[in-house]
Amino acid sequence: MHCVIRQRKLQLKLKFLKLILSCENDCRNNHNY
């Protein structure tokens, strides 16, 4: 069970990181950096 919880947390972190990265990319694209 503990492993499953840890894995879920990792997946959440990855999702969050991807969201942040995609947001940064959108900002760069909007400002043509």
Count of separate DSSP helical elements? 1
Oligomer: single chain
Give the radius of gyration. 14 Å
- What is the β-strand count? 0
Beta content? under 5%
Query: Overall mean pLDDT score?
Result: 84
First-to-last CA distance: 45 Å
Helix amount, in percent? over 70%
Tell me what the structure shows.
With 33 residues, this protein is mostly helical. It is built from one helix and no strands. The chain has one helix at residues 2-31. It is rod-shaped, with a radius of gyration of 14 Å. The model has no long low-confidence stretch (mean pLDDT 84).
Helices and strands, with pairings:
Blueprint: H1 2-31
What's this model, at a glance?
This protein is mainly alpha-helical and 33 residues long.
What are the defining features of this structure?
33 residues; mainly alpha; 1 helix; 91% helix
